[in-house]
Amino acid sequence: MLDDLDRRIIAATQTGLPLTPRPYHALAETLGVPAQEVMDRLRGMQARGVVRRIGAVPNHYALGWSANGMSVWDVADARVADLGPQVGALDFVSHCYRRPRHLPLWPYNLFAMVHGRGRDEVEDKVARIAALLGPASRAHEVLYSTRILKKTGLRIAA
Amino acid sequence: MSVELDGLDRRIVNGLQGGFPLSERPYAEAAEAFGIAEDELIARIDRLVETGALSRFAPLFNAERLGGAVCLCGMAVPAARFDAVAEQVNAHSEVAHNYAREHALSMWFVLASERPERIEEVAAAIEAETGLTVYRLPKLDEYYIGLKVEV
After folding, report:
1. Which domain holds residue A41?
2. What is the interface pTM, i.e. ipTM, of the complex?
3. Ordered domains of chain B (ranges, CATH)
4. Which of A3, A157, B3, B85 could form a disulfide with B53, with the two C-beta atoms 3.0–4.6 Å apart?
């Protein structure tokens, strides 16, 4: 579904959009295609969801949001499809997924990522998720990150 | 560790997470919303990236829509071997990020590849190399991925 030009555009932009007044023209020159084609391709990839968005990717840690809590919840299977989107809709939840359990070690099926300037702030937010889920959540934990061991993101070859 | 931002920086970080114009002069267009000139916006973004406040200013791609696959994995790594295992895990280019977390499952990494079959191959390779179980936790449903942070 991606042709060669799409891939070359991804490879040329994945680490950063050119910081020049006409960034798509600069890309077009590098790639040897018209600027309109570059914009059309990016618009098309955005429409298909290949590009989520174009813009600023903040670094939580550098911005002082040092507490990163992965909250995990054991939500009744019959309720998770209904409650998951409500948790995801909370303005402070940055990612929210349903994932498989690995019993008995890992009973949790709902993951909601919560960031804060400190653990107190994360705990307040987790309490709001707990209130929303009520008795449908049988147990939960918050796994705080203590170190980033690697952060490169997906890399596409040209 | 924390980067100092002024009010304009904050408005830029918050305002440019939602989208960016696909036009001839996108910085000029975006700058208007902040009441500043095109060259000032470019200089500000450049500095935000240089100081690490932004990881990057770029299109954000969705690996699954690229035909690839992503899988979150958790591993219970003995403390004495933690750094050595982190090195073994990180050596695989499919490991997109990796975090140490306070839990019996102490290492959490994301495998991402354009070739879905690589996820299982790499998870199995990590198990063979480390002798540890890799718990595969692929997403079954996505309820929200906003990726926005207000500063």
Report:
1. 4-47
2. 0.80
3. 7-50 (no CATH), 64-137 (3.30.70.920)
4. B3
